[in-house]
Every structure is written in C-alpha cells, then in structure tokens.
C-alpha cells in the first residue's frame, strides 16, 4: 500500500506530503488545479520518463518520494527480484538535478529501471492509455493469463524449455537441409580443417613453452658474444689476472719496509682471488650457452604453424582442438546425411509431441478460465449499466511460442440482438473505460497487487452509469487501496479518504496544494461538484443526501 507521497519543486507544487489510506482514496478539484501533477509525481517515483519542464524552479532540485508498506506476498515478490525491504517498507525516490536525475531505493542509488521494476510489483496504474490498450487484441491474452496465473504458470514453466529445444532443432534442420553439391563442398572443407589440425598434433600449453624457449634461444647468441668479449678483456693481450699477480709479487718484496704496504698487498691479493673465481664462473657459463641454429629454426617454424592455426580457428590451442572436434562431428553428420536427417526429424517429432501436450494443457486451463472470466465480466458489466451486454473470450491457435500456441480476443455485444464483435469495433471511449473497470473488478481476485490507481476512469459517463461505476470502484477497493482522480460527485461520495487539490496565487506565483478533507468539508466539495459556482441550500442538501446514501448503500 502507498502510505506516503512527498513532492517538492515540481510543476505547480512547491512542497507537499500526502498520506494515503486503505480503501478508496479520491482526489478532486477545479479544472487546472493540478490533479494530474500528483499522478505525474508518482510516475516519476516509479521510474517514469522525466520531463525537464516539470521542474518548478530550475535553481533547486525537484524531488519525489513514495513510501510503501508491504504485505507478505509483496515482500516475497520483491525478494525474488533482488529488491530488499526494511521493516516491512520500501522507499522509492527520485531527485532531479539540472539535466540529471538520481534514483534511490531505501536510500541506495539505483538505475531508474529498478524503480520501474519495483513499481510494477507494487502498483497498477490505469489511465487513458490502458483503456485504449483494450483495442489491441495482443493485450487480451496477458489479461486472461493473469486471471488463471496460479494454474497456468507451472505449465508455462515446463513449456518454455521444450519450446526452446523444439526451435533449436528446427533451426538445425533448416541449416542441415542442403543440396548434394553444397554437402560435398562442406565435406571437403571440414575434412581439410580436421586433417590440418590433426597433422599439427597440438598439445595444450605447447605454445607457451615454445614462446619461452624461443625467447631464450633468440638471446643466447648475443649473450655468448658479450661474455666472450668480457673474457677477452680480462684474459686477452692485457691478461688482467696476470698483471694483478705480478703487482702483488712486486708489493710482497717491499712488505718488510712499511706496514701499510702489507695492507695494500693483502687487498690486491683478495682482488686476485675474486677475479680468479669470476674467471672460472665466466668460462663455465660460456660453455653452458649452446646455440643450435637448426633447433632455433625448428622452434620458429613450430610457433608459426601454431599461430597460423590460432588465427584460423581460435585464440588458444584449446579452441583449435575444439574446432577439430566440431568439424569431425559435422563430418559425421554429412557423411551419413540421410541417417542424420532422419534422426533429426525424429527428435523434432518427439519435441513437437511434448510441446503439443503442454500447449494443449495450457489451452485447457485458458479455455476454462476464459469461460469463467467471461461469466464474471458479464455480471460486472451489468452492474456498470451494460444491462444487455454479452461478453466472450475467443481463444484461437497460432504459431508455437514459449507461451503456448494460443491467441485471445475479447468479443462484445452491447445491445440485444447484435452479434458479438471484436471489442475494438464496438466500444466507445466511455464504454472502454467501464469495460476496463469490469475486467479489473474481476481480475482483482487473482491479482495480489495492493494498490490500484485509476486516472480518467469517469471519461464519458454520467447519471446512473456514474453511480454504477462508483459502486464498482468501491467494490474493487475492498481489501486493497484504490487511488483515483474524479470529476463525478457520485464517485467522490463513496470515498474512504477525500483529498482536495487547490490552486492559488502567492508572491507573484501560482501554487497547487493538496489536503485531506473532514466530513463537513467533503459535503462542501460534493456540493461544488454538483452545483458548480452556485451552491444553494438545496445543492448542499443534495450533497448530504448523496454522501449519506452512498455510505448507507455499502
């Protein structure tokens, strides 16, 4: 249930906070007072499209926030959609900042699409577009399915994967149905692929090992040359090690004359030992560095082959091996094409049999539901002043889909003796609103969404029909929340909570405000709706009688 709606800096509204209740919530006001702004604000909170022109003062942020209290069913549906609630509530908000908007759920920033996802689980909004959608037969099957949802959903859950299997097999059959010349070309190509990869005798990880070996071998010649150059510098014509040895012997001859010379001789001796050890290590390293041009050429050619295969068949050796397996599988099918096609057709026949069984099971559920839906809608239409109306749900078959093979169309006759015709060919705008209300009255029993909003439900109706619509709206509101804007006193008189939307001029600007009415104020507003600008005692009495009669009739 929508508990609270807060609106700031939006169109004619500076700042308003509206607390709704269970049952029938009615909003009324003069034409142009800003009634549609309230529903527009709620639409924004539910992830609707932003119209920048709606921002009242561009120097400030516009803000809307909707607070919903949840029943157990709603909490479960939100949880299934990965939407968290806290303490039995969920808060949806939207802040419009210049050319951007920030959407939040329970204070956490989310894409606007998440607001829409949550809104679809919490609230149904029925405006002129929904009334018009009844003219589209494509909308009729989903309405019927919502009526039989409990029984139908388990069947559709089984049907969907079978349909996908059947569609996949049909696609495979279409691709496999080739002429003899094309089959031979495919065999030739796939044979080449298989043999080329098989001849390469690839091993997983082989390319990485070869690349590392190639890197080492390509640098080995340069390393060997540099080490040889060092060896030549140390032991060539200069023969550094011999010179150090000669220098040490020269110092040893004068050690007895000066203690400091003895230290110098020791240091030079240490240098000789270090360099002598280095010379052995250097020559061992040079001996270990073997560069085999033939082996290097073999590694290079092997890497070229592998890289060429990867360029043709995949990024990795594993991809290339898989390409061969796929080619072999296709070859097996092509070489024994007749048997393969026969096997494929058998699979399709089996899948189609299972699909037909599930589609027929879904159809039986829909057929039974269509009869019950039509019966209940006919009864509802009578209460909406369609005294002689007939209504049927025509169920037909079409192509397979993951929803079965049915199509539905609502058929109606609004006058005695007239044949049933498609709804779009018969109903006027006012009649379409009432038919939508009749459907929602019936579907409400199968629909656990706690809040319903009706906009322009009273389009094109008056008199006894208006009273009938009012009673039906009251019926829908039992056990749930209904919010609506109306111009008809017959509907407003049945309110559980009545809001008045007013427009006023303050400080050189125009603002709209909304407030709940007391019982006395409800009478005054009903009198205005009945009498217009002139409210006489007789009009006021009529308003009192309408309110009292409406309450008494419930």
Largest beta sheet, briefly? 6 strands, antiparallel
Secondary structure category: alpha/beta
Percent in strands: 15-25%
Helix content: 55-70%
- What is the first-to-last residue Cα distance? 22 Å
The shape, in one word, is elongated
* Annotation, overall tally of beta strands: 15
Description:
The structure is a single chain. This protein is α/β, with parallel strands linked by helices and 554 residues long. Helices cover 57% and strands 19% of the residues. It is built from 18 helices and 15 strands. The chain has helices at 35-45, 72-80, 112-122, 128-133, 140-147, 149-176, 180-200, 206-235, 240-252, 259-288, 293-313, 317-335, 337-383, 429-443, 463-477, 489-492, 519-531, 537-553; strands at residues 2-10, 13-19, 23-28, 62-69, 89-97, 100-105, 108-110, 123-126, 390-401, 404-413, 421-422, 451-455, 481-485, 497-506, 509-516. The strands form three sheets. It has a six-stranded antiparallel sheet with strand order 2-1-4-5-6-7, covered by helices on one side. It has a six-stranded mixed sheet with strand order 8-12-13-3-14-15. Strands 9-10-11 form a three-stranded antiparallel sheet. Helix 11 packs across helix 12 (317-335), helix 12 (317-335) packs across helix 13 and helix 14 (429-443) packs parallel to helix 15 (463-477). It is elongated, with a radius of gyration of 43 Å. The mean pLDDT is 84.
């Amino acid at each position: 249930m929508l508990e609270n709606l807060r609106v700031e800096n939006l169109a004619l509204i500076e700042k308003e906070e509206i607390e709704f209740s269970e049952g029938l919530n009615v909003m009324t006001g003069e034409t142009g007072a800003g009634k549609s702004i309230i529903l527009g604000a709620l639409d924004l909170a539910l992830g609707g499209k932003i119209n920048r022109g709606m921002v009242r003062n561009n120097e400030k942020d516009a803000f809307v926030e909707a607070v919903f209290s949840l029943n157990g069913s709603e909490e479960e549906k939100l949880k299934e959609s990965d939407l968290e609630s806290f303490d039995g509530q969920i808060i949806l908000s939207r802040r419009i900042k210049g050319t951007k908007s920030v959407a939040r759920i329970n204070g956490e920033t989310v894409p606007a699409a998440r607001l829409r996802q949550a809104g679809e689980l919490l609230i149904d909004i029925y405006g002129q577009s929904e009334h018009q959608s009844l003219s589209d037969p494509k909308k009729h099957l989903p309405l019927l399915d919502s009526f039989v949802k409990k029984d139908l959903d388990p069947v559709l859950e089984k049907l969907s994967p079978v349909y996908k299997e059947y569609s996949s097999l049909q696609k495979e059959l279409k691709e496999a149905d080739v002429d003899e010349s094309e089959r031979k070309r495919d065999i030739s190509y796939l044979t080449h692929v298989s043999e080329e990869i098989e001849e390469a005798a690839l091993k997983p990880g082989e390319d990485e090992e070869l690349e590392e070996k190639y890197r080492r071998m390509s640098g080995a010649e340069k390393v060997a040359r540099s080490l040889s150059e060092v060896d030549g510098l140390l032991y060539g014509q200069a023969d550094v090690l011999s010179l150090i040895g000669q220098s040490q012997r020269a110092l040893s001859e004068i050690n007895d004359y000066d203690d400091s010379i003895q230290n110098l001789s020791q240091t030079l001796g240490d240098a000789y030992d270090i360099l002598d050890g280095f010379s052995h290590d250097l020559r061992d390293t040079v001996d270990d560095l073997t560069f085999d041009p033939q082996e290097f050429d073999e590694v290079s050619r092997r890497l070229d082959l592998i890289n060429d295969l990867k360029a043709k068949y995949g990024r990795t050796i594993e991809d290339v091996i898989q390409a061969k397996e796929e080619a072999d599988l296709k070859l097996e099918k092509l070489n024994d094409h007749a048997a393969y096609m026969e096997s494929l057709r058998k699979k399709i026949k089996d899948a189609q049999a299972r699909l037909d069984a599930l589609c027929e099971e879904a159809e039986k559920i829909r057929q039974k539901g269509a009869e019950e839906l039509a019966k209940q809608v006919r009864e509802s239409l009578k209460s909406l002043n369609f005294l002689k109306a007939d209504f049927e749900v025509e169920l037909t078959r079409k192509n397979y889909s993951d929803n079965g093979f049915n199509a539905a169309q609502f058929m109606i006759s609004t006058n005695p003796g007239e044949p049933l015709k498609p709804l779009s060919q018969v109903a006027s705008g006012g009649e379409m609103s009432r038919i939508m209300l009749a459907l929602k009255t019936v579907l409400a029993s199968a629909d656990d969404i706690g809040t319903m909003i009706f906009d322009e439900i009273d389009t094109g109706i008056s008199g006894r029909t208006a009273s009938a619509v009012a009673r039906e709206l009251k019926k829908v509101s039992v056990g749930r929340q209904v919010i609506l804007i109306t111009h008809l006193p017959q509907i407003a008189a049945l309110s559980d909570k009545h809001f008045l939307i007013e427009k006023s001029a303050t400080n050189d600007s125009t603002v709209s405000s909304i407030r709940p009415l007391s019982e006395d104020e409800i009478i005054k507003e009903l009198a205005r709706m009945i009498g217009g600008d002139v409210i006489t005692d007789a009009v006021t009495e009529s308003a009192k009688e309408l309110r009292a009669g409406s309450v008494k009739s419930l």
